[in-house]
Amino acid sequence: MAKADYYELLGVSKNASPEEIKKAYRKKAVQFHPDKHKGDKGMEAKFKEVSEAYEVLKDPEKKAAYDRYGHAAFQQGGMGGGGRSGGGGFHDPFDIFREVFGGGGGGGFEDFFGGGGRSSAGGSQAGSDLRYDLEISLTEAFKGTEKEISYRTSVSCDHCSGNGAEPGSKVVTCSTCGGAGRVIQSRGFFQVQQTCPTCGGAGRIPEKKCSKCGGDGRVMQTKKVKLKIPAGIDTGQKLRSANNGEAGVMGGPAGDLYVVLHVREHDLFERRGSDLYCDIPIKFTLAALGGTIDVPTLSNESGLVSLKIPAGTQDGTVFKLRDRGMPILRGGGKGNQYVRVHIEVPKKLNSEQRELLEKFARVCGDAEEPIAGSFWDKAKRIFE
């Protein structure tokens, strides 16, 4: 059967750069690796083929020979000067895989495919980190607060002190892996290293399993943790609580707890970074005559701050209250508060109000010219 084209195997063109060739090989090698297709000889053959293709195309001299002579360049006595040892002259495909992915010796790829964990040979395993999502109010985010949270997690077993052995019995070396925490399986002429199925990579097992935890060294428990939440915290930011994650295996260190904050939306304020925005309705008489009003704020205990409205204020005008925004988490200081005013027009008028407004309109000439002259000036320019 004719050998497949190396470029087609990797899915690259003849003009592909070395980095593109390497990237294509990484993708194909992971796709066809025997560890992902246990017992599938077809996938194993594909893995060998793409490794062979990469070995040739990564080397400028071999690539040039292949481009000129094709597969004949690497046959015994071929134009490329003959192959190396081993019937086609190519390296073990797993050596090539290790070269690209940086795997350890012995043909083991369990770390790459997620089987290695955080164990040390013959030792303990660190516990996993945990995530907790916590919702707080905008006021709590403004002032800072303390919260106590509770969650279910594994903790070190108090009956066996975390080693998994019934008190009075011993922890012994695992007979399956000899304490290495890993075993080697043969697949034809390949050898693959994997985590020991008996000890789970710890390298040790209890002589007699703990009656409370079943030999795991951990039990489930509801845990309570107090958190200090700093002023200025925002949605998506995390707090780390060291050693409050899952307990480690065989006395290993506990993982960490990461608390992800979510700040609830406020009825009045909209937060944009360290600044706060709010919309305030005002009477049209105040907008016309000017005056002072109290507006809501988070920056003081009363919840109100005075704002001066100049006479002639227009609808949509935005006022800035300096340093009345959210505390800046890193760097200190505060953002600003922005107040946008909306002028309320009365929906109903009594006879006296209507009479006075009609008189005002006549004095201003609004009855004859209800649309402002500045608008007509702009409109005329558009059609000139």
Question: Would you write up a description of this structure?
Answer:
By secondary structure, the chain is of the alpha+beta class. It has four domains: 6-101, DnaJ domain (Helix Hairpins, Orthogonal Bundle); 130-263, Chaperone, DNAj Protein, Chain A (Ribbon); 280-345, Urease metallochaperone UreE, N-terminal domain (HSP40/DNAj peptide-binding domain, Sandwich); 350-384, no CATH class. Helix content is 24%, strand content 25%. The protein is built from nine helices and 15 strands. The strands form six sheets. A four-stranded mixed beta sheet has the order 10-11-15-14. A hairpin with a 2-residue loop joins strand 10 and strand 11 (275-283). The longest helix has 17 residues, at 41-57. The radius of gyration is 37 Å and the shape is flat. It starts with 5 loop residues before the first helix and ends with a helix. Mean pLDDT is 83; it is low at 76-88 and 103-122.
Secondary structure elements and their pairing?
Blueprint (H helix, E strand, L loop, with lengths): L5 H5 L7 H15 L8 H17 L2 H10 L23 H9 L28 E7 L1 H6 L1 E12 L14 E3 L8 E6 L2 E6 L8 E3 L11 E12 L8 E4 L15 E7 L6 E3 L2 E9 H6 L1 E6 L7 E6 L8 E4 L15 E8 L6 H14 L8 H11 L1
Parallel strand pairs: 1-9, 11-15
Antiparallel strand pairs: 2-7, 3-6, 4-5, 8-9, 10-11, 12-13, 14-15
Helix pairs in contact: 2-3, 3-5
